[in-house]
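Problem 12. The chain below contains 250 residues. Write out its predicted structure in token notation.
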Amino acid sequence: MKIRVFDDKLALGAAAAAAGAEKLRAAIARKGSANVILATGASQFEMLSKLLAEPGIDWSVVSIFHLDEYIGLAVDHPAGFRKYLWTRFVSKLPVPPAAFYPVNGSAADPEAECERLGAVIAAHPVDVAFIGIGENGHIAFNDPPADFETEKPYLMIALDEKCRRQQLGEGWFPTLADVPARAISMSVRQILKSAAIVNTVPDRRKAEAVRGALEGKLSNLCPASILRTHPDVTTFLDRESASLLEQPHA
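Solution.
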């Protein structure tokens, strides 16, 4: 895993966007199209803003997936990830993407939604996954102890309290009781099938999870530690999120 540390979130976001954009342009040049996963949450604000401004990407041949969505949340709920991606990214593209495949958390049958999305992503091998790490070490909504074995592309997940408190702390919900207890999440193994992973993790509140992911034991109790097994991952940190690392990183 490559690790890059920046002085602030703006520089971090710009570098992560540039790295992912380079992978996207290469995929389009090689095969005429690309498939991408976009993460959500407060940690991705700067990266997504900079990715929108990256030149030379023909978004009309790019299919967009995202990682997860709360079960039972309406499509227009302000904390929903479908709304987040549409308002912050997809609707701002210079041209419509080839496709946008949101996770329908308000589907009547969440298990059937998992199956539907699994069939779609199986036909769209992912070139670049933009992800982050949660305060509890999760990737997507794979909270500890995460399932490292299942080959199912999407899962129904019970969210742990630390994950739900993170969503509350970031201001997405007024009370903890308002944070949904379940979600549909892309699985760990599906994320690892991505050809390249751009991992964007700013803020001091993520420092403990970063230390566990990068320097701790490879364990499903820190799900992000599995990223160390992937051949092409770059983790982008700021000084705050890197503050607990024992080994210095430039």
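Discussion. The first helix runs from residue 9 to 31. Students who got a different answer should revisit the alignment rule from Section 12.3.
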